[in-house]
Each structure stands twice: as C-alpha cells, then as structure tokens.
Amino acid sequence: MNDILMMLLAGVPWTVGVTVCAFAVGVVLGFPLCALRMSQVPSLRVLGAALVLTLRSIPPIVWLFFIFFGIGGGYVTLSPFVAAVVGLGLITAAQMAEVYRGAFAAIPDGQYEAAHVLNLSAPQRFFDVVLPQLVRISIPTAATYAIGLLKDSAVASTLGVADISFQAYQVSQQTFQGLGVYSAAALVYLVLSVPVALASRWLSSTLQRRISL
Amino acid sequence: MNPMSIPLRQVPPVPAVKPAFLRLESLYKQFGKYEVLHDVNFEMSKGEVVAIIGPSGSGKSTLLRCINQLEPPTRGRIRLDELDIDAATPMARADLLKLRRRIGMVFQSFNLFPHLTVLRNVSLAQVRTLGRSEREADARSMQLLERVGLADKAGHYPARCSGGQQQRIAIARALALEPQLMLFDEPTSALDPELGLEVLAVMKELAGEGMSMIVVTHEMHFAETVSDRVVVMAEGRIIEQGPSAQVMRQPRHERVSKFLQAVRNR
Ligand SMILES: Nc1ncnc2c1ncn2[C@@H]1O[C@H](COP(=O)(O)OP(=O)(O)O)[C@@H](O)[C@H]1O
Ligand SMILES: [Mg+2]
C-alpha cells in the first residue's frame, strides 16, 4: 500500500505543474481575450466571442489531442506537458475572459468618473483604480475554477503526462488493485484542493472585510 | 512681475464689470435625439457660491458634467478664466487636462476607491497628476483630513466609514488637487439628515473661505443661507436665477414657487 501511495505522489508535481502553468497562461491571456470581447470595434467583438465560444464548447480532451497530435504531429514538436499546458491554458483563458468581463461590469461607473475627474491618465485609471478592484472581484470565481482545473488536468494523462491519474492507471494495471489505487488517487486530489479552497476563502473574506465589494 | 515696473500709461483700462470666472454660452446637450440641456446661459464670478435646484430629470447633473466635460456638450461654449472651449471644435487633450485640473467634483455616491485607504484615496491623484512625492502628498492629505475632521480615519478603508465621513473624504480628495471651482452633485442626497449636516458644515466652511462652488442640491436651507445665487432648472432650461433670498422667497415664476412648495412640504 505504501508503494502505491509513493507512486501516486510521484504524479503530484506533474498534476500541480500542469494546473499552475495552465492557470497562469489563462489568467494572463484572459485579459487580451476579454479586451477583444469588450472591444468598441464590432468585428473584434465578434472575433472575441467566437474564440470564447470555441474554446468553451469543445471538450478539453479533443482540444488536447488536436494540439498534441494535430499541431504537435506536424512541424512543431510539443512535449505532452507543453501540449497539456497550452490546451488547458487556452480553455482557462476563455473562462477567465468571462470572469473578467463580469468583474468589469461589477465596477460602478462612479469609479471611472472619479478617476476622470481626478485627471488620472488611461494607464493610471487601469492600474490604480480598475485592476485592483477587478482582481478582488475575480478571486472567488477564479479560485473555484482553479479547483476544477486541478481535477480536469487529469486529461493530461491521456497524452502521457505522468500525473496522478497517469500513475494511478499504471499502478492499477500492475497491481490489479483498482479500488484501492483509485481511492488513494481520489484522496490525493482532495488533499490538493483543500489548500486552494482555504486560501481563496481566506483571501476573499479578508478583502471583503476591508473593502466590502 | 513687479507691478511698479509697469509704466503708468500702459496700464490697461479697468473693465467696468468683473469678468466672469465661468461662463456658459448657449449650451446644448443631446443624448441621441433626446435634448437634455436647451440653450443654457450662465455666468459666475470667482468666490461665488451658486446653488442649482429643480425637479429630478431637469438636467442639473448633466449641466455639471458638461462643465468638466464628463459629458461633452453638443453645442455651445464654456469659458473658464482664459480657457475657451467651443463644442463645435474638437477639444485638445491639453485643454481638457487644464480644465479638469481647475475643477474638483463631488458626487452623490462619493465614489471613493474602495481598495485604497482613506489617506491613499486623498493622496493618489496628487502623486499621479501633480507630481508630488508620496511624502508631500500624504502630508497634504493629512492636513485636509484634519480639516474635514477625519484625520483619525487616515488608515481605514472607506467601507469602514459612515456615508457622511466618506463624503467628507471625497471633498478632501477633490481639494487636494487645489481646484479653483468645486462642483457638488447632490452631495447629501444619499445621506441620513444628520450625516448630511456634517457634510454641509464642511461645504459652508469652504464657501466661507472663498471657494467658487456650484452645488446641485435639494437642501433648501443651504441654498437660501449659504449660496449667493440660486439657479432653477426645469426640462433642460434655466427658468429662473437670481440672488438666493429673492429666488427662494419671491420667485418670479409660478412654476418655481410650486416647486419650492413641494420640496418644503416633503
Ligand atoms: N447618459 C445618458 N444617456 C441618456 N439619457 C440621459 C443620460 N444621462 C441623463 N440622461 C437623461 O437626461 C435627463 C436629465 O438627467 P439629469 O441631468 O441626471 O437630471 P437631474 O440631475 O436634474 O435629475 C434625464 O431625463 C435623464 O434620463
Ligand atoms: Mg442628478
């Protein structure tokens, strides 16, 4: 049993790695995608909406195969890890773009008006006034999504990333103890999500108490 | 320049009337087809306090917002000191900055930045737009917070302050940029009466110090006792203006006396 657990734990860095990297990609790329989606230019707005819809409606496993076997099988060679990060990162970007859009809508017009009246420049309005509020509003939803992503990162195992699910499959094939192995794997996923949930809880309630957004 | 160095014969003739500090010339504002301001003409001199009253929807907020170009007027002219802004010609960015630098604005909903401490709220724009150092700005902010009686709140977040306190902080934030004209858009309308009083007290003090102010308000007592002049608006037009006592006690128009009666009976 100890050996089984050790094998599963060997997958943790890969699961965490895929999740953290894909989330980081999504958090950053979510901004330009959100900007497209909210653009004044109708054609850009349509493009943004189309991208978000595409990324959100195709199943992650199809995306990953498309990137790994489709694009990766062509001229560029992608490692399973990179392909998983790119695929899940793009899907995350689409989700985050929608989160940011909602957060923008939650910032009252009065904030922009005050910033204008105080003569703040456009970059100052964004970085001093809008962005900090956007981040605070986005945190709870983003954290919920991050926990989902931790679970969904299991799809990376289908490309051969040696994450928790991949290890669980290998071990169960070798030991024929499917029930025990997958129960242990479930437990590892659970233990990994708890700190994220707690951190998000703590962050939101601290910010809430201070600024009551 | 040393005035003594100007030879006497070159002294320009003293104008008969003090030139207006702010002058609005046939200002129009339309939202699409809908006309919100119609031929508004108005002037005030430096140090004057003008109250704007009138039923809701009459265009009072829009008028204030046209003055500092939060809403660009559709037609007409705004002069503030030597700045001359004609709605017909596109406005240079430099002029917009100059205009806004001279005008402070206080909103009904305070609009403090919720993610910044009270002190930072007052200091931010000083650092960003006046180029003051953080230390200079904070020192100035503390003076202003002291003045509105809230120095002890400097380290708090706005959410922990009452509405009345938030509005006084918003006034301090506007004053920190040393405006020559302050616009107030129903500064006490979102407040319980007793909290409104602390805000009105600060505004009265400011008026006493010679600040030029335009105040959209439903506080008839303030309009009558603190402001020098009252402007009454209805349906996008100025329907009456004059010295406060006269407008408030002997309005010339039936419409105005009815409005005053309605407000007083509320
Ligand atoms: N951004 C806007 N777009 C369209 N209509 C507006 C806008 N702002 C104000 N209005 C309309 O203009 C009229 C005057 O509004 P406002 O200046 O806010 O009046 P007041 O401040 O006197 O209550 C109202 O009928 C209002 O609905
Ligand atoms: Mg109004």
TrEMBL record, chain A:
Signal peptide: none
Localization of this protein: Cell inner membrane; Cell membrane
Keyword Amino-acid biosynthesis: no
Domain ABC transmembrane type-1, first and last residues per copy: 12-200
Coiled coil: none
Transmembrane segments: 12-34, 46-69, 75-94, 179-203
Record Pfam families: BPD_transp_1
Entry annotated with the keyword Electron transport: no
Main location per the UniProt record: membrane
Keywords associated with the record: Amino-acid transport, Cell membrane, Membrane, Transmembrane, Transmembrane helix, Transport
Topology term for the membrane: Multi-pass membrane protein
Sequence similarity: Belongs to the binding-protein-dependent transport system permease family. HisMQ subfamily.
Protein name: Amino acid ABC transporter permease
Species this protein is from: Pseudomonas capeferrum
